[in-house]
Amino acid sequence: MYEYKAKIISVYDGDTVRADIDLGFGIWHKDQVIRLAGINAPEMRGEAKEKEAGKLARDKLREKILDKEVKLVTFKDKKGKYGRWLAEIYYPYQKHSMQFSENLSVNQWLVNNNWAVEAKY
């Protein structure tokens, strides 16, 4: 597992975001697609009921982490099958102390609030 400081720059749906990742020493990996590992959120397209649930999950995730600094923990330091990094996201990130407070897993937060379900893949 690898840990990185990142800023969430967009939220596509309840389990996919884009982030600028701080690799250290002033090196950034910009505009990277991140798939939240171990969960599955409702799709944004398809049947009306699932689409509405997908929009709700996306909106809740946006409220929580969009434009925020987070910690990314990747499980494989390479891209997955669909060209996305698989990661767990932790929020909030305390900028000044270089410490991560509370280590609230956003992935688990989505599951706990029924905006996503645990998934094995």
Arithmetic mean pLDDT: 89
- Our measurement of the CA-to-CA distance between the termini, rounded to an integer number of angstroms, reads 17 Å
CATH architecture group name: Beta Barrel
Radius of gyration using CA atoms only: 14 Å
Q: What overall geometry do the principal axes of the alpha carbons give?
A: globular
Low-confidence residue ranges: none
Tell me the CATH topology. OB fold (Dihydrolipoamide Acetyltransferase, E2P)
What can you see in these coordinates?
The protein is α+β, with helices and mostly antiparallel strands and 121 residues long. It has a single domain, classed as Beta Barrel (OB fold (Dihydrolipoamide Acetyltransferase, E2P)). The chain has two helices and eight strands. The protein has a five-stranded mixed β-barrel with strand order 1-2-3-6-5. Strand 1 (2-13) and strand 2 form a beta hairpin. The longest helix is centred in the middle third of the chain and has 18 residues, at 48-65.
What is this structure's SSE topology?
Blueprint: E1 2-13, E2 16-24, E3 27-36, E4 39-40, H1 48-65, E5 69-79, E6 85-94, E7 99-105, H2 106-112, E8 117-118
Parallel strand pairs: 3-6
Antiparallel strand pairs: 1-2, 1-5, 2-3, 4-8, 5-6, 6-7
